[in-house]
């Protein structure tokens, strides 16, 4: 976030230092009736627990889901403590093809480590974790999310070649504080921003450093939350790390601590994947690229930079999945979370879709493509068999086996050709199911689907888009003055594309 607390403090100060109190009282007395609607609109939004789950309920749902699917899921509670501060962290291992007996079973799989709920006030991210877990647990949920059986079948082949480690709520202690009423709290239970506690460029402070938002802790990796995730990452050695936040719309790649993008074809492929997801799932409104470069200010000691630079995780991302730019500074729940049921469902559907697209794009990245070659060959064979009306598994197995043999038998060029073909197929499949997917999404949008049958919302789309653009522009103008201080001149000659008023990157 773009220093919301500091900005909030400035604004609160301005408010109390504003018009003399008697004058204010007179004004209120004179026109209290017309003021009423305005007063209502500036109320601080409280979490609506008919939409959101409370911390304990959400974690219980996750645990129950894993317990109900023991063949493919395992939920484990990890503990760590430091100087009397202790935490519990729930971590779910999911393998749709069946849990491996030990970590040796992960060698030939694409390994994904996904972190949600790192900041207490960002409720929506943990809700997304729960949705994603349901999709991994349940074929019907996958089919609904995929928008049809055909795409789901293909996804199932990809999923079967993956192992997921999912942290549905990293910061349970900070979340506890938010549920008790500290709606603007993002740090952990003892005041440390764990997304500044990692040992890459740790402790460096920008000119406008604000400890109430970004205190990095007394030492790198001092925080129990970070210790647990570090240990998980070291043992899993993931190919994919996604750190899910809210506060804006973005698909960030490294680096956060400097305004550059990593060199090389792998990094370029990762950026291309995010660009595709921006178009497919973020309606093109996500900032894409290096966190430090895209937003125009730097963050030091972030998890994503550590995963990329120290643990060499080739696909390291920070996703920002929601932000209300028009929310007032002290209205944090509204700023970081959708507040209507409809917006809640739409956000979850969009980002569930983003995760499915991420999976489908893995064959386009050099680090993960080889691990998916057999899965995609099996998917191709199953589709071909289905088209001919044959039984899919019988046709799929030999195709996969012969491909594997070809790859192992030094057929370098044929292997490469296969990889290129699968990469192209992956892109093609992304374009195919859009219509079907939208129909299926409607299942999760009660307000839309109950609107008199059919797609009544489709006609409203352009109007809503215009309204959104106007709202964003207005918010930018209004908030720019408040949040802009200390940011201008941050970059070289004002060349950075950061827009005053955009919330802070990297959570
Ligand atoms: Zn965050």
UniProtKB/TrEMBL annotation:
GO molecular function: metallocarboxypeptidase activity; zinc ion binding
Transmembrane intervals: 459-479
Cofactors, names only: Zn(2+)
Keyword entries, A-Z: Carboxypeptidase, Hydrolase, Membrane, Protease, Signal, Transmembrane, Transmembrane helix
CDD domains associated with the record: M14-CPA-like
Classification via InterPro entries: At5g42320_M14_CPD, Peptidase_M14
Coiled-coil regions listed: none
Peptidase M14 domain mapped to chain residues: 51-362
Classification via Gene3D superfamilies: Zn peptidases (3.40.630.10)
Signal peptide as annotated in the record: 1-40
Annotated region described as Disordered, given as residue ranges: 405-438, 483-507
Biological process (GO), any one: proteolysis
Active site: 320 (proton donor/acceptor)
Assigned GO CC terms: extracellular space
UniProt record similarity statement: Belongs to the peptidase M14 family.
Protein name: Metallocarboxypeptidase A
Native source organism of the sequence: Raphidocelis subcapitata
């Amino acid at each position: 976030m773009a220093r919301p607390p500091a900005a909030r403090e400035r604004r609160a100060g301005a408010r109390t230092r504003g018009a003399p109190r008697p004058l204010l009282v007179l004004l209120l007395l004179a026109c209290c009736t017309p003021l009423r609607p305005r007063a209502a609109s500036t109320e601080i939004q409280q979490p609506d627990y008919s939409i959101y789950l409370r911390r304990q309920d959400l974690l219980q749902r996750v645990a129950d889901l894993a317990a109900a699917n023991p063949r493919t899921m395992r939920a484990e509670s990890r503990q760590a403590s430091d100087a009397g501060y202790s935490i519990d962290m729930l971590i779910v291992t999911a393998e749709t093809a069946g849990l491996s007996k030990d970590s040796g079973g992960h060698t030939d799989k694409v390994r994904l480590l996904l972190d949600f709920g790192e900041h207490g006030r960002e409720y929506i991210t943990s809700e997304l974790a729960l949705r994603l877990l349901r999709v991994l647990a349940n074929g019907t949920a996958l089919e609904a999310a995929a928008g049809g059986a055909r795409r789901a079948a293909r996804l199932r082949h990809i999923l079967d070649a993956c192992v997921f480690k999912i942290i549905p709520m990293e910061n349970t202690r900070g979340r506890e504080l938010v549920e008790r009423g500290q709606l603007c709290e993002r740090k952990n239970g003892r005041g440390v921003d764990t997304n500044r506690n990692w040992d890459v460029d740790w402790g460096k402070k920008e000119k406008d450093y604000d400890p109430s938002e970004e205190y990095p802790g007394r030492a790198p990796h001092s925080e129990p939350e970070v210790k647990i995730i570090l240990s998980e990452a070291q043992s899993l050695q993931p190919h994919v790390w996604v750190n899910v936040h809210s506060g804006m719309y973005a698909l960030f790649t490294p680096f956060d601590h400097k305004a550059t993008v990593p060199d090389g074809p792998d990094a370029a492929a990762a950026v291309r994947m995010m660009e595709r997801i921006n178009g497919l799932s973020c309606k093109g409104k996500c900032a894409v690229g290096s966190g430090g470069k895209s937003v125009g200010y730097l963050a030091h000691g972030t998890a994503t930079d550590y995963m990329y630079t120290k643990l060499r995780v080739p696909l390291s991302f920070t996703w920002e999945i929601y932000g209300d730019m028009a929310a007032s500074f002290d209205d944090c729940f509204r700023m970081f979370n959708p507040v209507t049921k409809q917006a809640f469902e739409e956000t979850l559907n969009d980002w569930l879709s983003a995760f499915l697209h991420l999976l489908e794009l893995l064959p386009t990245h050099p680090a993960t493509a080889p691990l998916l070659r057999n899965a995609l060959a099996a998917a191709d064979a199953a589709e071909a068999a289905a088209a001919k009306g044959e039984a899919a598994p019988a046709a799929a197995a030999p195709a996969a086996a012969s491909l594997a043999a070809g790859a192992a038998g030094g057929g370098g060029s044929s292997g490469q050709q296969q990889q290129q073909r699968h990469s192209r197929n992956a892109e093609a499949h992304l374009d195919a199911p859009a219509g079907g997917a939208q129909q299926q999404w409607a299942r999760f949008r009660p307000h839309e689907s109950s609107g008199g049958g059919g797609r009544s919302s489709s006609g409203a789309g352009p109007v809503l888009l215009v309204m959104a653009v106007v709202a964003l522009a207005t918010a930018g103008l209004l908030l720019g003055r408040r949040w802009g201080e200390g940011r201008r001149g941050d970059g070289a000659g004002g060349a950075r594309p950061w827009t005053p008023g955009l919330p802070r990157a990297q959570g």
